[in-house]
Amino acid sequence: MQKHTKRFFTAPNESCFIFGPRGTGKSTWIKDHLKQAMVINLLDEKTLLQYLSNPGYIKEIVLGNQKNHSTFVVDEIQKIPQMLDSIHDLIESDKKLRFVLTGSSARKLKRAGVNLLAGRAILKKMHPFMAAELEDSFNLEQALKIGMLPLIVNAPDPSTTLASYISLYLKEEVQAEALVRNIGDFARFLEIISFSHGSILNTSNISRECGLSRKIIDNYLSILDDLLLCYFLPVFTKRAKREVVSHPKFYYFDAGVYYTLRPKGPLDKISEIDGMALEGLVLQHLRAWTDYSQYKSDIYYWRTKGGSEVDFIIYGEKYFIAIEVKNSTKIFSQDLKSLKAFASDYNEATPLLLYRGTDQIIKDGIKCMPVSQFLRLLEPDSWPK
Q: Which of 131, 253, 271, 372 can pair with 140 through a Cys bridge, CB separation 3.0 to 4.6 Å?
């Protein structure tokens, strides 16, 4: 039985889309918070076939049940994008109706040219757990290995469930929708691209390692993006005083997914793999924090052509913070070099170093904070002190 955990995610009172990868807890949230809603679950095969043959049937269902229900949920709306035309008409004809439409893939919606109800519905995103949601149950070492997906965290055997989760995406989302011609090539690509987690994307190298054309690699990256399984982190270029690189960094959306897909062998240093997992874990928390907060911020990285690099830049109406993540228990002055370079160019920014130690300290004028403490204190609309 799935454990009940508080979630920071909130939905508006009007119609909305809730997008998030499979296993982030969208259905559980709906059961907890929309108890009076009528739910149409397109993961149910019988229901799916019924609406595939007649997408407009949603109108008949709503008209027949609106006396008892004002909110209607369509789970996994991307499976039948054509339903959105009828939903749009229903919203236009009755402003009291509220539709909550969940999705774990944007690919079919994009391919169908769907306009997301012409702005009639707000777009919200649901992420894996944040450490502050788990409270005392959060364990950093465990999070680096199995990630923060509710489906995995609450499983009796998280490692086995995580491996099955990745296979599920290959089978149900990629293979079933015929997104790729060769599922074996795609599975190999998922492993190869794991070496790029936390790094600047070089599609030429990935193409060569996979033995596939760049066009196919670009398509595979697009599939990962549409399935919400990865994130491309752009470079911070605002008011740049130095020449910076132009290509984005690649990250899997969850540390556990990365850790499971990343091949490990005699030539692979576990400390390097853990370091990239830690960096990704911090990023997925920052992404959840920005999406759940009232004050919106964007996330970037900073890298000059001279080699100075800062892992994350938080830039928004309320926050301007430069964050460096170190997978070490001690901090040396050399570790602060890039943060100092960024602070000299942007004195408005607050530099912060996160590390694996146990003490919060100030070193060379820069706050250094245990990463576990930082993640536990990170909540929407507040910043760890």
A: 372
What is the domain range of residue 168?
Answer: 131-377
Shared-domain flag, residues 155 and 230: yes
pTM above 0.85, yes or no: yes
Q: Are residues 238 and 109 in the same domain?
A: no
* Separation between Cα atoms, residue 172 and residue 189, nearest integer Å: 17
Identify whether the C-beta of residue 128 lies closer than 8 Å to the C-beta of residue 149: yes
CA 240 vs. chain centroid, Å, equals 28
CB-facing half-sphere around the CA of 7: CA atoms within 13 A: 25
Single residue among 93, 125, 157 that ends a domain in this structure: 125
CATH code, domain carrying 42: 3.40.50.300
Q: What is the pLDDT of residues 326-349, one digit of tens each?
A: 999 999 999 999 999 999 999 999
Structure tokens at 338: 């890039």
Name the residue among 339, 332, 373, 333 with its Cα closest to residue 353: 339
| Among the listed residues 74, 20, 32, the one whose alpha carbon sits nearest the alpha carbon of residue 51 | 74
Q: Provide the number of structural domains found in the chain.
A: 2
The identity of residue 337, as a single letter, is K
Residue 9 lies in a domain: no
Cα 83 to the chain's mean position, in Å? 26
Q: CB 238: neighbour CB atoms within 10 A?
A: 10
Report pLDDT digits (tens) over 40-94.
999 999 999 999 999 999 999 999 999 999 999 999 998 898 999 899 899 989 9
| 319 shares a domain with 187 | yes
Give the separation between CA 215 and CA 220, rounded to whole angstroms: 9
> CA-CA distance, 235 to 313, in Å (whole number)?
9
What pairing do the DSSP bridges indicate for beta strands 249-252 and 230-233?
antiparallel
Phi, psi angles (nearest 5°) of residue 368: -120, 125
